[in-house]
């Protein structure tokens, strides 16, 4: 975090935080590697990009604003079904579909935030989870609209910008997901390094003191929750558009829980934690689940226990510590 | 002759008793330490599998297996509490959630590995099978037994908490942990014992549940939601609250499933959300 010298003026402090680092640029260049090195795994790569986007939306509320949610798949699912229904019944243009999905999820996020931000501790976990379960059950029973457990069929996408068709190998799908992920990431990065982002961190650290210095906790949390819901909706819409189908699992509790696990694995409250965590998790699942899908959950469970006990700041936090020790600085 | 709605209410009450035995331990430990233990149903599942193994593989009678299910779950809880849980009592809730979800994942995978993914049947004694006909209602004997067991557990718990020295310590720790510690009560020891007893009760509940709701490798996840609903609706640390919440949730779930099957579990989720929004600390919670 910030050193006293850097905090000379708030403007300089925020600016120094927002500076692009070499490692970041290398990271984003590396995301282009799958096109060259693993052209057979492009559909997995686009799944990872979509999951990373969803994890990023959870990071915004969980890592920065301190709202522990186990029901964020509700917004992912709303975006996924929203984009699916839109393409089936209105038109198949992808970008407007994304915008619409974001809008639907944002409205739902704002409405539920009116309730959610008033609670803490167990109650907030139960309420976010309750909303998620309610929506899952509703989609399950609304067979006429969503196809229920059979899945939603009939999505057909037009080419992006009228030019890039979705191909069988996933070139377009990965490029599209990656571009959306990067654009949204830039937005979130800007938000986090703004005074608003700083006050979110303040609310996470001390919920009752922030209003005393002029940052209304609840209205800030409502904004963060709404923005995060919109991002989750975009991620869901991306999944629909790149796979051209929607399954009920987009709303499932497992999706919420798994993605929180990825986020924690990477490190919460660290922008790149969401991306690194989902990369490790998805690649590991792809490699291991071929052997035995049930044992996969055993290893994930063990990993979780190990991360909580040994690496409370996630993989990125552990790496930062290592680097600092290497350079001889005290963390 | 009573109308069939009483049948539904009776089944719902029996189901509620089951939920009570499954969840009361979590309510008390949550109230004491504020530790969010999402692995509670993993102990229930352990109890269930212990009972199934003893009864169906070894050939023990059902009633001999019940205390072993209790002890097995309690022993597992003691080990995990001493090695993992106690280090996170002061940690943020997210870390507690993650640790215990990790334990759930591992238990689910282990159960699937050892027992496969099929439903486990259990052999109950002959006198618990069948049903009685009372005033035109069909009353399952096993459900009657469940109600008796639930009421017995509630009575024993209330008596222990109200009339013993240990119970007084636990109540003091639930009311105000720091004050209790200041008065010389060893809160950690009291908590460890309560945790073992509560998880043991969950194990007992898991063994009792097999006949009604079945047992498979996914139990630890599937019933976690129900248990959490009962606990958060009833209010943390309140036995009476858990009892009423369990009955309320059990009955509304049965009612919804009989009369509005097209809505599925929608009913109890809605009941939970409304109660939590109205009273965030639960019906009988003080905090």
Structure description:
The complex is a heterodimer of chains A (331) and B (287). Helix content of chain A is 71%, strand content 0%. Chain A is globular and about 55 Å long. Chain A is mainly α and 331 residues long. Chain A has helices spanning 10-18, 22-30, 33-37, 42-64, 73-89, 94-116, 121-141, 143-146, 171-192, 195-205, 217-243, 253-266, 272-288, 293-310, 314-327. Chain A folds into two domains: 1-30, no CATH class; 38-252, no CATH class. Chain B contains twelve helices and two strands. The mean pLDDT of chain B is 86. Chain B has helices spanning 5-33, 40-58, 62-83, 93-115, 141-163, 165-175, 177-182, 187-213, 219-222, 224-234, 239-259, 266-278; strands at 131-134, 137-140. Chain B is 73% helix and 3% strand. Chain B has a domain at 21-220. A two-stranded antiparallel sheet of chain B has the order 1-2. With 287 residues, chain B is an all-alpha fold. The interface between A and B is large, with 42 and 45 residues.
């Amino acid at each position: 975090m910030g050193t006293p010298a850097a905090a000379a003026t708030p403007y300089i402090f925020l600016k120094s935080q927002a500076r692009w680092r070499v490692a970041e640029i290398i990271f984003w260049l590396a995301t282009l590697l799958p096109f060259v090195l693993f052209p057979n795994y492009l559909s997995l790569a686009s799944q990872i990009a979509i999951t990373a986007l969803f994890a990023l939306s959870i990071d915004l509320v969980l890592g920065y604003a301190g709202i522990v949610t186990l029901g964020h798949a509700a917004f992912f699912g709303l975006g996924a079904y929203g984009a699916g229904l839109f393409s089936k019944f209105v038109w198949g243009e992808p970008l407007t579909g994304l915008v619409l999905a974001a809008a639907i999820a944002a409205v739902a996020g704002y409405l539920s935030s009116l309730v959610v931000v008033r609670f803490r501790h167990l109650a907030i976990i139960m309420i976010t989870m309750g909303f998620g379960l309610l929506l899952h059950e509703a989609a399950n029973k609304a067979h006429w609209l969503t196809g229920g457990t059979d899945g939603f069929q009939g999505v057909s996408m037009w080419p992006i910008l009228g030019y890039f068709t979705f191909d069988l190998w996933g070139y377009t799908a990965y490029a599209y997901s990656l571009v959306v992920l990067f654009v949204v990431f830039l937005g979130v990065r800007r938000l986090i390094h703004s005074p608003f982002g700083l006050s979110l961190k303040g609310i996470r650290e001390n919920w009752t003191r922030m209003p005393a210095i002029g940052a209304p906790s609840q209205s800030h949390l409502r904004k963060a929750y709404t923005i995060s819901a919109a991002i989750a909706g975009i991620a869901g819409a991306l999944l629909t558009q790149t796979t051209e189908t929607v399954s009920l699992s987009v709303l499932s509790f497992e999706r919420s829980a798994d993605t929180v696990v990825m986020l924690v694995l990477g490190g919460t409250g660290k922008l790149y934690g969401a991306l690194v965590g989902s990369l490790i998790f998805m690649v590991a699942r792809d490699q291991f689940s071929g052997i035995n899908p049930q044992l996969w959950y055993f290893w994930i469970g063990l990993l979780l226990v190990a991360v909580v006990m040994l690496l409370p700041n996630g993989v990125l936090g552990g790496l930062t510590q290592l680097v600092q020790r290497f350079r001889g600085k005290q963390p | 002759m009573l109308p069939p709605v009483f049948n539904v209410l009776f089944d719902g009450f029996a189901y509620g008793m089951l939920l009570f035995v499954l969840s009361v331990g979590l309510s008390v430990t949550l109230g004491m330490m504020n530790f969010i233990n999402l692995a509670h149903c993993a102990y229930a599942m352990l109890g269930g599998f212990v009972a199934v193994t003893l009864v169906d593989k070894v050939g023990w009678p059902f009633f001999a297996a019940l205390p072993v299910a209790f002890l097995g779950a309690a022993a597992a809880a003691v080990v995990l509490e001493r090695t993992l849980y106690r280090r996170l009592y002061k940690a943020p809730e997210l870390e507690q959630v993650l640790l215990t979800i990790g334990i759930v994942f591992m238990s689910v995978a282990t159960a699937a590995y050892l027992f496969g993914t099929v439903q486990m049947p259990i052999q109950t004694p002959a006198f618990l099978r069948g049903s009685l006909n009372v005033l035109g209602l069909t009353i399952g004997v096993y459900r009657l037994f469940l109600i008796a067991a639930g009421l017995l557990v509630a009575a024993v718990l209330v008596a222990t908490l109200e009339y013993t020295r240990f119970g007084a310590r636990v109540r003091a720790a639930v009311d105000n942990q720091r004050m209790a510690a200041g008065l010389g009560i060893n809160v950690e020891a009291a908590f460890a014992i309560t945790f073992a007893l509560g998880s043991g009760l969950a194990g007992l509940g898991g063994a009792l549940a097999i006949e009604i709701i079945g047992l498979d490798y996914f139990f630890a996840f599937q019933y976690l939601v129900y248990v959490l609903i009962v606990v958060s609706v009833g209010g943390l640390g309140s036995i009476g609250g858990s009892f009423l919440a369990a009955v309320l949730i059990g009955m509304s779930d049965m009612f919804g499933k009989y009369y509005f099957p097209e809505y599925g579990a929608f009913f109890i989720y809605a009941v939970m959300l409304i109660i939590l929004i109205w009273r965030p600390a639960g019906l009988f919670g003080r905090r």
